[in-house]
Amino acid sequence: MVRKIAICSQKGGVGKTTTSVNLAAGLAMLGHKVLLIDNDSQANATTSCGIRQQDVHLSLYDILTKPDQKPDPVIRKCRLDTLWLIPASGQLVSAEIELIREMGRELILKEKMEEIEERYDYVIIDCTPGISLLVLNALFCCDEIIIPIQSQFLALEGIDQLLHAVHVIQKRMRHSIRVTGIVCTMFDRRTKLSSFILQQMTSLFKEGLFETVISVNTKLAEAPLKGNNIFEYAPACNAANDYMALAREVVERGNRDWKETYCRSDDGLAIKPGVQFAEENDTLKCKMESLKPLISAVMSIDNAKASELEAKTEKPQEEGAPEVPKSVSDTGGSAAPSAMEEENILWG
Question: How many domains, the chain?
Fold first, then answer.
């Protein structure tokens, strides 16, 4: 049976496209038949698969806006033997406006994909940030969601809104979509902040967080320039190992029939019996608010030591020389930490 997975996040720049392309490629490398759908008007997933925009004559836009358009002519073969792509184009920008008066407009992609989805083992949909009509089409088409989160605090703030949207779709629309897992991306093992955020994410999401962590790697940024996924561009690098591990974990969660369920009550995020996704009787939003002072503590400097160091290094002012402020704070700013202090703050 096909597994349909949307890669979603409220925030941009957290690695949705990178995760979509390389997860799809990793699953294909494991021998599964995979269809990748580029559901973003920027068409970055299309470019990452080596297809130039000038070569795209039919795209997801045509599937969504033209009632008679079948998916088959739109599907493109990728270089990997078991990987196919439905490309995107800049025309997707106008798709939401064109569909605004259509009845059941959020179900168009689901209905079109029913014709072909059983040919594949996995359908992976790369979504645009936020909750738009394009994203709703992806969510109604899919049965599962994977949420990439950058290992920074601001990336955590939008997840409560996304989980609420999933709950509304589950409850009001009677659609049995579930969150398969949350994956930490752009993790920098050299910094104390990334390690602290990962620790807090583990506490917040418990088993909902994938064990696999995607570390920062320049090869991930270089690969799309060549129109490659990470396995084609640098198969021996750590990033390729990370995404292969993620692909295996996604397969494993499907094999053991991953059943993550939750519901929202007036008291906050309440958990039904089964796998815990977050702490009971504690809203995710309030929990993340409590992280702010902790993160500030991790990033703060010892102002007393900074002032003491400044006093020791201050030279007497020559007579007649113009007065120079002792620190940036004298001019309305704040004193910057020394290079040594900054290194102690940022690097583990």
Answer: 2
